[in-house]
Write a structure and sequence with these properties.
Nuclear Transport Factor 2, Chain: A; alpha+beta; Jelly Rolls; 338 residues; 8 helices; 18 strands
Length: 338
Amino acid sequence: MKKTILILITILIIAAAVFVYLKQTGRWPLPGQPGQNNPGEQDGSSNGLATYKNAQYNFEISYPPHFPENDGGSTNYNVGEFLVGPGTNVVTISLPKDSYPGTNFYDAFLTISVSSPGVTEATCRQAQREGDTQILNLTNTDIVNNVKFYQGSTGGAAAGTLSKDRIYHASIVDRCYEVSLNLFEGNIGNYPAGSVKQFDENDAYSKLETIFRTFKINIPSVSETKQNELTPEQFVRNYLDAYANIAQKKNFAEVKSYLTADALSFMQEEGVPLETNYTKFDSYQFLKVQDLGNHFTAQAKLYNNGLAIKNTDGSDIIEIDIIRQGANYKAETWYFTP
């Protein structure tokens, strides 16, 4: 009898130890089991992946179900976000803590952040570490599920800890969406010789990149933006956001939806379709809108590859005529190049 009791006690101790290990490494609940670390069961899953969905910002992302996920930023490192201006960390997905045993690996995680409204594409193409005055220009581009991202990298070191960050920004309507891939490791030179190995950074980044490639966002159509609730200023910003990089996006139908019927008729009658008669610019600076009674005139500066587009008189202020049609605003100006 005593032998049986000892066996049962031993089994319970082993089971408890396994449970604690699985919890600490982010492997509990197991795939398919209910629990807070398996949002795929609540939010939908595909190919054995858990899927996080955010209704407020209209995006989703999938990841292995044993990878820890938490709302907000990293729970281990105060990374914040790299947005220029106010923003918020929405969700973080991390690699399990024991991903690289016997190495200088500390942590690796992906964080999605979103800016406050009113951010231009030009601002979204920049990054800034919280508390730092230095601006990083994101010069490389990448396309993920039809979303164009501007990409750059940065890093830092403090108290023997090295951080390496890959930053991706996408300008969606009037917000900047950020996906950051972050690695933290110990300085290998601070360890006794032969005590640990350098972990495989490329492998860690590959796992985070695989998660990043599942990122999808539902970009609202013009009709969904409820133009009747917009100000003339916001209409102009939305119009220029849609128009910028039109040659690459080829979103001619979207840009036309901002134009008056007279402007569209003129294109057809004069044989100057938007598809071949557009102004090439990749960013802009909004200046002001004037109410002239029967219509509005907006002023802005347009830039292409960092250079301002100029009028024939040498000035760089572009005017856009806007009228109100019912509850909506429409633009009469679509060709800005002299």
